[in-house]
Every structure is written in C-alpha cells, then in structure tokens.
Design goal:
Blueprint lengths: L16 E2 L4 E4 L5 E4 L8 E2 L1 E4 L13 E10 L4 E11 L9 E8 L4 E11 L5 E8 L2 E7 L4 E6 L13 E6 L9 E10 L2 E5 L2 E2 L3 E7 L5 E7 L8 E10 L8 E6 L8 E6 L13 E6 L1 E2 L5 E2 L3 E10 L2 E5 L2 E2 L3 E8 L4 E8 L8 E10 L8 E6 L8 E6 L14 E5 L7
Antiparallel strand pairs: 1-4, 2-3, 3-7, 5-6, 6-11, 7-10, 8-9, 8-11, 9-10, 12-13, 13-18, 14-15, 14-19, 15-16, 17-18, 19-20, 21-22, 22-29, 23-24, 25-26, 25-30, 26-27, 28-29, 30-31, 32-33
C-alpha cells in the first residue's frame, strides 16, 4: 500500500486549566490568578466566582463594607508557592495603598486575615495579593466615621479653671478594622474662632496630637491666654478618617469659673466705730474673695486695680494707686484670694476727729462689692494748754514801767482764744 501520511491537532486546554508548569487565568471581569511554575503538583481547573456583599457567606466585620470579593476554586486547593490573585474594585482606591485581605473560614463562619497585604494597582482599579490556598477572598474597608470621646472639660461642665486646656480623643477603632483618623482633616472652632484648620494650629492656640496606637489621636488644645470668668466656651469639632468617612460635626460647651459673688472687707483696724484712736494710726483692712458655698471656696480673686479708698473726704487710693499725702502697701493673701491693705497718712489726724473711710473694689470677674462706709474717732486732747516764754518773767524786778507783757500759749490740739 502506498504510504499514507496525515496529521491531526488536539484542542488547546481551556485557559482555566493550569498544571505544574504554571500559568495565568484572567476573566472578562478582570479577576485573575497567576500561578508560578511548581506551585501545583497536578493539573487543576480553576474557577472564579465574583460575589456581591449580599452573597457573602457571612456579613463583613462590624464597621466595614466590602470593596471586592470572589470565590476562588477549587476550594481548599493548596499551593507549594505563593499564588497571586487580583480582584477588581467596586470603587477606585489610591494607587499603591495597601489593605488587609481576608479569607472565609467556614469552620468558624468568620473572616480571617490572610496576613498578606492587598496592594492597589497603579490605575487604582484593582488589588492584588499573594495567597497559599483557594477560598473565598474579600477586602473590606472602614465604613464607620471616627467618634469623639473623653471630653475634658466635659459637655455642660461649669466652674472650669480659666487656664484649662481643651482635651478630647478622636477614636476610629470600631470593629477593630479601621482606616485611622486623618489628622489633616481636623478642624476645631472655639467660640466662633478657628483654633485648628486642616490639622494646623492657629494663632492663640497650641495643638498637641498623640497617636493612640489604634487609629486615633489624643488631642490637647492649650489657649495662649486664660478664658474670661463666667465665660461660656463653645467647641465645634470636624474630622474624617483615612477612608473618607466624615464624623458628624460635634458641638459642645462648658463654662469657665462662674464667680458671681463680690469681694468683701474684714479685719478692720481701727475697727468701725472705734474711739480713742491714736492720731498717727495706720489704717488696715483685708480684701477677701471667698465664697460661702462651699465655705472658704475661693472666688476669682480681688482686682487690685479696681480699689478706691477715700479717707476723711480725700482720695487715698485711686484705681489701686496711692495718692498724695498717703503711703502704705499691700500683701497678697492666697488663702483669701485677696490682699492685706495698710494706709498711712503723711499727716496725723486731728484730736477727737471723726474719720470717715469709704472702700470700693471689684473681683477679677468684675463683681462689684457694695460700697463699704465706716468711721472711727481719734483720741481727744485731755492735756490743758501751757503758758511759756513769759516776759517779764515771774518774780522779775526793776521792770521798766512801759514794758509790754508777753507770753506764749501752747496746746497740742490748739488754744481756744
């Protein structure tokens, strides 16, 4: 028979059939499996089934939403080397960013972290990660905004020290899968003025941020100056996390030290109504700013520059300054929130004189003390006048017949002619 020669071809294996030589399988939707040589011991028919969030075997971790997921099969297939899987993203992400990739553990009906980071592609449209077995794989992102906790001063606090810092914590650890607070999105408004803009402190405030290790920050705002007494402070905070979830604007208020009680005067010397006061006496009194409830609770403190004292109708102290013909001083008293005042006239008081004293003062919260009026009586003159410098002198003889008689009358309070 003449020699017969012929040939035939076998069909190419389907693209999803890969053996020990390795290969790449890509679906029309963009899902991909890249298997290096030697990762498989035998030929396997690969399957990729995209999943929507409702199709997941168990819900996403608390506080997250699914960005991509697929069932890679045959389920349970183990590899001798890392295999790279690629999943298209529902919404684009920042190229080069990394996210945790999770696999579905059917034994515990939970999502377990693969320990491998999924890296976003250069076009931001897919994410790739290395895996060692087939399962359902998914990537979740933070869907919960940050929260603000640990307010200090707290909302509604009163009698807050006027030099207090503003402290709060920005937390983004809901569910344990967090993107973290983005400190560059922090904006703080205090009484209508910007204290922080896009994470940067503004004039009048010093900002300190400390990372808490769980995606959040401890924030301290230190005002350059003190608050006003009785001043209401309103704080408004805005911030987002790195996933772009914006916290609902938080607004709260507190009130600086609420001093409504005016100062008072005590410790008078001479005391009101006292008599027989020495003519060269120094006037003492104490200005105090204590409250009665609770007892001895200090007020805002005496405002020395508001002190005005009138003695005998003449200004002795005006706006905290001694006037002509008076000198003296003061010492602060931390126990009373005030001052011990001493006033010494340059000229002694007259005998048996009624000396009127008027005191006006405010505290640092500008509570005005009701005017204090009192008086004391100086000692009378109980010594009679004396006559001196007699001329002619007593017993003098041979006095000219035309001599004048002269003498001097002396008295500490004056002679009544």
């Amino acid at each position: 028979m003449p020699q017969l020669a012929y040939s035939f071809t076998t069909p190419e294996p389907p693209p999803n059939v890969i053996g020990p030589a390795g290969g790449t399988y890509t679906t029309e939707e963009g899902y991909e499996i890249d298997i290096p040589a030697g990762a498989l011991d035998s030929t396997v028919s690969l399957t990729i089934t995209p999943l929507t969030e409702p199709e997941l075997p168990t819900p996403p971790p608390i506080g997250t939403s699914m960005t991509t997921a697929a069932d890679f099969g045959p389920d349970g297939t183990q590899f001798n080397d890392n295999v790279t899987i690629t999943l298209p993203l529902v919404n684009p992400l920042t190229p080069g960013d990394t996210y945790d990739l999770y696999w579905y553990n059917s034994a515990t009906d939970s999502w377990d972290d693969t320990g491998a980071d999924g890296m976003v592609a250069a076009d931001g449209l897919s994410v790739s990660a290395a895996v060692t077995h087939f399962s359902i794989y998914a990537m979740f992102i933070d869907s919960e905004p940050p929260t603000i906790i640990g307010l200090n001063p707290g909302a509604g606090d009163v009698d807050v020290a006027i030099n207090s810092n503003i402290n709060f914590e920005l937390d983004d650890s809901v569910g344990g899968l967090y993107s973290g607070v983005n400190p560059l999105t922090l904006n703080v408004l205090i009484n209508g003025y910007q204290a922080v803009i896009d994470g940067a402190e503004q004039n009048g405030w010093s900002l300190t941020r400390t990372y808490d290790g769980e995606g959040g920050y401890d924030v301290v705002l230190d005002p350059v100056g003190d608050y006003g007494y009785n001043q209401g402070i309103n704080v408004v905070v805005d911030v987002s996390d790195n996933a772009g979830n914006a916290m609902s604007q938080t607004s709260y208020s507190f009130t600086a030290f609420n001093d409504t009680v005016p100062p008072s005067v005590e410790g008078f010397n001479p005391t009101p109504g006292e008599d027989l006061v020495p003519l060269d006496t120094t006037i003492y009194f104490e200005l105090v700013d204590r409250h009665d409830n609770p007892p001895d609770d200090l007020g805002s403190g005496v405002l020395l520059s508001s002190l005005n004292v009138v003695i005998g109708g003449l200004d002795a102290i005006v706006n905290g300054t001694f006037q002509t013909n008076y000198f003296g001083g003061w010492t602060s008293d931390n126990l009373s929130g005030g001052y011990n005042i001493s006033i010494n006239p340059h000229i002694d008081f007259a005998h048996a004189a009624i000396v009127d004293v008027t005191i006006n003062v405010k505290d640092k919260a500008y509570n005005a003390m009701p005017q204090v009026d009192y008086s004391f009586l100086t000692a009378p003159d109980t010594t009679p006048p004396v006559i001196t410098n007699l001329s002619p002198t007593p017993g003098e003889d041979q006095v000219p017949i035309d001599s004048s008689i002269s003498f001097e009358l002396e008295d500490v309070s004056g002679v009544a002619l």
